[in-house]
Amino acid sequence: MHNDLHDWDRTHHWHAFTQMAEYEPLVIESADGVWLFDTEGRRLLDGAGSMWCNVHGHNHPAINTAIERQLHRVAHATSLGMSCDTTVQLAKRLVDVTPAGLDHVFFSSDGSSANEVALKAAFQYWLQCDDPQPQKTKYLTFGEAYHGDTIGAASVGGIGKFHDLFKPLLFEVVRTPSPDMRRLPSGVTGDDAAKFFLDEVEALLREQGNQLAAVVIEPLVQGAAGMVMQPPGFIRGLRKLADQYNVLLITDEVATGFGRTGTMFACEAEGITPDFLTLGKGLTGGYLPMAATLTSTRIWETFLGDAESGRALYHGHTYSGNPLAAAAALASLHLFSEEHTLETLPPKVERLSVRLAELAEHPHVANARQRGMVVALDLVADKQTGEPFPPEARVGQRVAQIALEHEVWLRPRPDMTYAFPPLAISLEEIDLLMDAMTAGVEAATS
């Protein structure tokens, strides 16, 4: 059976973002806490949080029980013209825990879909608001952004490797460079960084703001871009600019939400409320597919009218608000309170910081960076010049391969490495994680 699974995995299971001609099967058969167990009998620390979604650890009894109890009540009820009590309770809970003023929740099944909802609703808002602005049909987005792979989400994305092939299918956007601390010009210090990047944004808003429906951004950390960290004050300044130029603000917290950056939501770190907040990944603690788009009463009210008004949001998903996923999400949110998840993070963040600082001294490590429970570093051939390794060296992939030999699973990247572990990770497990990453960097760059 073991060999059959590997053969079937290689030939029948078409994996996401994977060149199947080179794929080597890694088949997980069970998990517990921060540990994955594969069909080879190996125990692997989940260093990427199962693609940034696992929060409280795998096989948590509270989430398991919540799903099981819901399963014996109702597994699914449509959100088209009806609801389920569990889903209604989750909507209210999300309103309570997200930034003030986000009082309405639209459920979907994944982060891409949550962003599609925000894009479509922002467009429709400008057609139906008290002062209609039908010319507002474009979006301001950022270089190297990632918001998903459906057509609208890909359009506002900025990673050419993922989306350039599909350009004929995508709509036009206005794009500004990423607010990446690694691209500050000479003479601009960290203290001035936010203003430098905000000035770039304002130049475009001044010129094209009357055509823009919304600004779309991953706050604090751009994940798929390579864990790009934004300067303090940037998101707060972006909120002010959006208001000044009468443009809506969509914050994509699919990856940054639920404690990843140190606060429950990244927006909280700078005290702002967006017009749309999109959530996914950690919403259910990493257990079941579910996403959500939250918005304000000001926007919600423009969609109200009689059946003939045409004001409804004609968008939906069969499994939108699925009760099993809602039960998992409610249990996950309860665990944040019961296990004091956010309160336990500071020593973990500090341990990651100490270990990252040690690794930053390596001669082939550059731009070591951290935001909360996310750490990343670039791998370079020459630290003084920043010269990268040649692509064929595949140093990032080699780091991940070597880490695997040290019982740690890291998501391979070509020229960098990162860790995005479950928040439930212990200090001892952080050391094991960073030991494996260090071993990988040393071996891959020697």
Using brief descriptors, characterize the structure shown.
alpha/beta, 14 helices, Aspartate Aminotransferase, domain 1, 4-stranded mixed β-sheet, 17% strand, Aspartate Aminotransferase, domain 2, 446 residues, 7-stranded mixed β-sheet
What does this structure look like?
With 446 residues, this protein is of the alpha/beta class. It folds into two domains: 2-55 and 342-445, Aspartate Aminotransferase, domain 1 (Alpha-Beta Complex); 66-338, Aspartate Aminotransferase, domain 2. It contains 14 helices and 17 strands. Strands 4-12-11-10-7-5-6 form a seven-stranded mixed beta sheet, sandwiched between helices. Strands 1-2-3-16 form a four-stranded mixed beta sheet. α3 (61-71) runs antiparallel to α11 (323-338) and α13 (395-405) crosses α14. The longest helix has 19 residues, at 427-445. It is globular and about 65 Å long. The two termini are 39 Å apart. The mean pLDDT is 96.
Summarize the SSE layout with pairings:
Blueprint: H1 2-11, E1 28-32, E2 35-38, E3 43-46, H2 49-52, H3 61-71, H4 85-97, E4 104-108, H5 111-128, E5 138-142, H6 151-155, H7 160-163, E6 174-176, H8 193-208, E7 212-217, E8 221-222, E9 228-229, H9 234-244, E10 248-252, E11 276-279, E12 291-295, H10 297-301, H11 323-338, H12 345-360, E13 365-371, E14 374-382, E15 387-388, H13 395-405, E16 408-409, E17 416-419, H14 427-445
Parallel strand pairs: 3-16, 5-6, 5-7, 7-10, 10-11
Antiparallel strand pairs: 1-2, 2-3, 4-12, 8-9, 11-12, 13-14, 14-15, 14-17
